[in-house]
Amino acid sequence: MIPAAVGYFRPDSLADAHEALATEDAKILAGGHSLIPLMKLRLARPSMLIDVSRVLPAGVRVTADGGASIGALTTWRDVATAAELGGCYAALRSSAGSIGDVQVRNRGTIGGGLCHADPSADIHAAALALGASVIVTSAGDERSEKFEGFVTAPYEPRLGTQDIVTWVCLPAQPPGASSAYEAVNDAASGYPVAGAAALLVTTDHRITTCRIGLTGVSSVPLRPSAAEAAVLGWSDPDGWADLRSRLRSVCDGVKVMADRSAAANYRAAMAQLVSARAVLRAYKQAEVAGAGS
Questions:
Q1: What domains can you pick out in the chain, each with its CATH number?
Q2: Cys-Cys crosslink for 282: which of 33, 159, 180, 245, Cβ 3.0 to 4.6 Å?
Q3: What was the pLDDT predicted at 291?
Q4: SS (H, E, C) the chain
């Protein structure tokens, strides 16, 4: 199909972008690889596209405290290949490299992806596990929003009509931290039926810190706190079966999605599986790093 008629504006400053967003039904255009397909199907019919390519930052920088800041216009490809995002941020690189195909990764942006708030976006799991936050600007104001709770419903981020996300921020992680991302994807769409990112720290070969982020499972990304606690104390000699058993609570209290890609019980089983895979992969990375230190 052909999109409905739409206006186009390419501002030269953030102030101009904020002013343009006052137009009813105006939408920000970043990479466009989520918005344009919706427009072609006429599921989205914005009155104006505001192209922010001149006014938002791109690239990755290491912060003074050892964390990282990623410009909102940084492409998925650049996130997936950024040397600054190695080590404890490996889950973010891995999830970015899992998004779409080459064309999507070359044009789609991390700021646009987080704000699109697709319930099955790979990046959400890593953003949760790593404790990410976003910097949001509005007319004359700037604030930081934790990503946990940022997505309030499918395709609904906690943003006002004139808000613009400028940076994605990752806090410094504990010494020895390691992370990983795993997913089981729908063969037709490539979206995860269930995806999990795990961040953990080991002491004397046992897990002492664990954060897990899930995507594709519910209407919003989530952290399964009971499952995170159950993993503490696990070590490799306990075995794969024990790790899977500890993660049986990963979907407790969650309304698991059911659609044409997967039934709810299958999606819950895959959530347990990918959570265990992510924890095991992060554990092995931490043990290798520890052996070499």
A1: 7-51 (3.30.43.10), 60-170 (3.30.465.10), 178-291 (3.30.390.50)
A2: 180
A3: 57
A4: CCCCCCEEECCCCHHHHHHHCCCCCEEEECCCCCHHHHHHCCCCCCCEEEECCCCCCCCEEECCCCCEEEECCCEHHHHHHCHHHCHHHHHHHHHHHCCCCHHHHHHCEHHHHHHHCCCCCHHHHHHHHCCCEEEEEECCEEEEEECCCCEEECCEECCCCCCEEEEEEECCCCCCCEEEEEEEECCCCCCEEEEEEEEEEEECCEEEEEEEEEECCCCCCECCHHHHHHHCCCCHHHCHHHHHHHCCCCCCCCCCCCCCCCCHHHHHHHHHHHHHHHHHHHHHHHHHHHHCC
> Is-above-0.90 flag for pTM?
yes
